[in-house]
TrEMBL record, chain A:
GO terms classed as biological process: phosphorelay signal transduction system; regulation of DNA-templated transcription
Start and end residues of each Response regulatory domain: 2-122
Key word Transcription present: yes
Protein name: Response regulator
Superkingdom of source: Bacteria
Pfam families on file: GerE, Response_reg
Keywords, sorted A to Z: DNA-binding, Phosphoprotein, Transcription, Transcription regulation
Cross-referenced SUPFAM superfamilies: C-terminal effector domain of the bipartite response regulators, CheY-like
Residues modified as 4-aspartylphosphate: 52
Source organism of this protein record: Microbispora catharanthi
Xref: Gene3D superfamilies: 3.40.50.2300
Domain annotation HTH luxR-type: ranges: 144-214
GO molecular function annotation: DNA binding
From TrEMBL, chain B:
Catalytic activity: ATP + protein L-histidine = ADP + protein N-phospho-L-histidine
EC identifiers of the protein: 2.7.13.3
Listed name of the protein: histidine kinase
GO molecular function annotation: ATP binding; phosphorelay sensor kinase activity; protein dimerization activity
Gene3D superfamilies, per database record: 1.20.5.1930, Histidine kinase-like ATPase, C-terminal domain (3.30.565.10)
Top-rank lineage group of the source organism: Bacteria
Annotated Histidine kinase/HSP90-like ATPase domain residues: 319-409
SMART domains recorded: HATPase_c
Keywords: ATP-binding, Kinase, Membrane, Nucleotide-binding, Phosphoprotein, Transferase, Transmembrane, Transmembrane helix, Two-component regulatory system
Lineage of source species: Bacteria, Bacillati, Actinomycetota, Actinomycetes, Streptosporangiales
């Protein structure tokens, strides 16, 4: 699987390259600035891009802008965005086109190599990977949302994991539930939130995120 | 005839202002008498009452100027002294003297406050001079009419009719202009001088600087403590854990692995703490996107349904953006916490060079800046930038808070206008018209002197002599008024560096 990587800190960049290579990815470009990134994304058309939000030359949201611009040129180009902090605003912008294949994680998540690589694979496959912190803040700002209050604590846990972009199987593993139990919970969640049920994992996640974003 | 109404209004106002000038003259004479009594005879007690009378008249004048000419005039007086406070033994100290009762120290304070304030003497000068300057300007139509009546009564009805007609026809254009001009002149003479304005501004800046320095020191102390107790301590622990793992690596790889896992968790926690700290110092989204998107991010994080409108031409300076951001953050948090609100509206826009943010919520209101430490904190933070917070929160809601930060965006320099040259011309010409051609010619005419010199009024045929002389005085007063008004306008156009 071909990856383009953008990260301006040398140490972290090398670490990520090593981690990805160790898991069988082919790192076709490892760049350190916004303009280089856009050129690499458009030129290489990788299977997935791992991008730091803050990049030279402006050290603002250069990386995010480049990723969004590349996705405008190549809709659905899978992009996993890394950042020292997460903002609902950025998550919303990444999800705005509704075509999936986006991830938004705190940089700390690379500490756990397995989970990080799993997130990269999920994004490359057109799924989503939202940081638990983003989901926590989404839920906190939806605290007064009527339908959410009707969920049971277990359903809430399932909702959180689902919003992060995990499949039924992954949720079951995490919460020690059988697949059918998870399926029952998700069906109940969709009914309570008034969303149309869907068998497609990715579409289901996008529907949940759209619901949470519609505050 | 609706079109005649403005004329009548202006005429009525002119008459009122002329009457006020006469009333002011009386007050000025009273004050002059009081000053003479005070300083020549030593009749000190009459002085404060006379000053109070003068201030009452000028205050009325300022109020009318604001209402009729639309020019707000600030009071130029220094703040009144606080009432004397007794010492612990119950006596009142005034310099090196002790008093049993506060009457005399209070009087001394008031005396100093009044006599040492230049505004007191400017009031006196204004009251005595007003009937001849802007008083004369507004009184002109009435004087022309009176002059016509005098001619008619004196047996020359044609002359009388000409003057009255002139007054009636001219008044339509003249009266509103005269009221406006009167206001501009009054604003210059009765408003605070540049010096007083600067003095007031310096004391305000001084207070703001002290607060800014204090709060900055407190902030740095808080950051130091947070780093010391949080991230720093955790890094020490991480280092120790890794060291222990290193030692165990050979003999007990299993335990070493567990320790390394712990170290990783601790580093994640340290990162989390630093992230929270950074958010409190300067939110990353503010640095990356500016105020507009930072406020949008706040709105997304708020449990309230928050609607944001942003209309900014460019980014303001970083410290200013930060002050505005934290103010909005605090206001939204207040609305959610205390106000029981469900919905909020944030509007970020410019007001000339000022940045204005309005936060409205549908909570139950009753917020009071005097009580809430949060609101006080916002005011303090804004104060360092001359910014202000206005909160309107009636019990039952809704609450509206307006933040205004002046000079957030670059000030465009005012272009040099022809007005300024015109103003200088007026400054040069007014004494010639008022004194030699007006007052001196009047004296010569009154004493019946045969000398005519270069006084125009004495060369024209008999019936026109008085009108020309009075006209010259009016012209002089008018030129002075225009000169003053132009100066004010130019100064305002240059940005009014002092507010």
């Amino acid at each position: 699987m071909r990856v383009v990587l953008a990260e301006d800190l040398h140490l972290l960049r090398e670490g990520l390259v090593a981690l990805l290579r160790a898991h069988g990815f082919e790192v076709v470009a490892a760049v350190e600035s916004g303009p280089e990134l856009l050129a690499a994304l458009v030129g290489e058309r990788p299977d997935v891009a791992v991008v730091d939000v803050r990049l030279p030359p402006t050290f603002t949201d250069e990386g995010l802008q480049a990723a969004l611009a590349a996705r405008r040129q190549a809709p659905g180009l899978p992009v996993l965005v890394l950042s020292q902090h997460v903002e609902q605003l950025y998550a919303r912008e990444l999800l705005a086109d509704g075509s999936g294949g986006v991830g938004y994680l705190l940089k700390d998540r690379v500490f756990n190599g397995e989970q990080f690589v799993d997130a990269v694979r999920r994004v490359a496959a057109g799924g989503t990977a939202m940081d638990p912190e983003v989901i926590a803040r989404l839920l906190a700002s939806n605290a007064r949302n009527e339908p959410l209050g009707r969920l049971t604590p277990r359903e809430r846990e399932v909702l959180e994991l689902m919003a992060e972009g995990r499949s039924n199987a992954a949720i079951g593993q995490r919460l020690f539930l059988s697949d059918s139990a998870v399926g029952k919970h998700t069906a109940s969640i969709f009914t309570k939130l008034g969303l149309a049920p869907s068998d497609d994992d990715n579409r289901r996640v996008l529907a949940v995120l759209a619901f949470l974003n519609s505050k | 005839m609706t079109s005649a109404r403005p004329t009548f209004t202006a005429l009525a106002r002119s008459a009122a202002l002329a009457g006020l000038a006469l009333l002011g003259l009386a007050a000025g004479l009273v004050m002059l008498a009081a000053v003479l009594l005070t300083f020549l005879v030593g009749l000190v007690p009459v002085f404060p009452s006379a000053v109070r009378l003068a201030r009452a008249v000028t205050r009325l004048q300022r109020g009318l100027t604001a209402r009729w000419s639309g020019i707000p005039v600030d009071e130029p007086y220094r703040p009144a002294p606080p009432p004397p406070v007794p010492q612990s033994d119950g006596w009142y100290r005034d310099g090196r003297t002790l008093y049993k009762r506060p009457t005399i120290p209070a009087f001394n304070q008031r005396w100093n406050w009044m006599t040492k304030d230049p505004a007191t003497w400017r009031d006196l000068a204004y009251l005595l001079a007003a009937p001849l300057t802007n008083g004369l300007v507004v009184a002109a139509p009435l004087l022309a009419t009176a002059y016509g009546v005098a001619w008619a009564a004196g047996g020359t009805p044609v002359m009388g009719a000409v003057w009255i007609l002139l007054a009636v026809i001219g008044v339509r254009w003249y009266a509103p202009w005269a009221v406006r001009l009167h206001g501009q002149v009054a604003a210059v003479l009765l408003g605070p001088t540049e010096k007083a304005r600067l003095a007031r501004r310096v004391s305000r800046l001084d207070a703001a600087r002290t607060e800014a320095v204090d709060s900055q020191a407190a902030e740095l102390r808080r950051i130091e403590r947070d780093l010391h107790d949080g991230a720093q301590a955790r890094l020490v622990a991480i280092g120790m854990t890794i060291g222990a793992a290193e030692q165990l690596l050979e003999n007990d790889p299993q335990a070493a692995r567990a320790l390394l896992g712990k170290a990783r968790e601790a580093s994640a926690t340290a990162l989390q703490e630093i992230r929270r700290l950074v958010r409190g110092i300067h939110p990353p989204v503010l640095a990356e996107r500016g105020l507009g998107d930072a406020v949008r991010a706040l709105a997304l994080d708020s449990p309230l349904r928050t609607h944001v409108t942003v209309d900014l031409p460019e980014r303001a300076t970083a410290p200013l953006e930060s002050a505005a951001y934290f103010a909005v953050s605090e206001l939204l948090a207040n609305a959610a916490r205390h106000g029981d609100a469900t919905e909020a509206w944030v509007d970020v826009s410019t007001q000339g060079p000022a940045l204005r943010v309005t936060v409205t919520d549908d909570g139950h209101g009753g917020a009071d800046p005097e009580q809430g430490t949060g609101l006080r904190g916002i005011e303090r933070r804004l104060g360092a930038f001359d910014g202000v917070l206005a909160v309107n929160s009636p019990v039952g809601g809704p609450t509206t808070a307006v933040i205004e930060l002046p000079r957030a965006f670059g000030v465009r320099p005012a272009p040099m206008t022809p007005w300024r040259y015109f103003g200088r011309l007026c400054w040069g010409l007014w004494p010639i018209a008022l004194f030699p051609q007006g007052l001196v010619a009047m004296v010569l005419k009154l004493v019946g002197s045969p000398v005519k010199s270069w006084f125009l009024g004495l060369y024209v045929p008999g019936p026109f002599q008085w009108p020309v002389i009075v006209g010259m005085m009016l012209l002089g007063g008018g030129l002075l008024a225009v000169a003053l008004a132009t100066t004010v306008r130019t100064r305002e156009a240059e940005g009014g560096a002092c507010g």
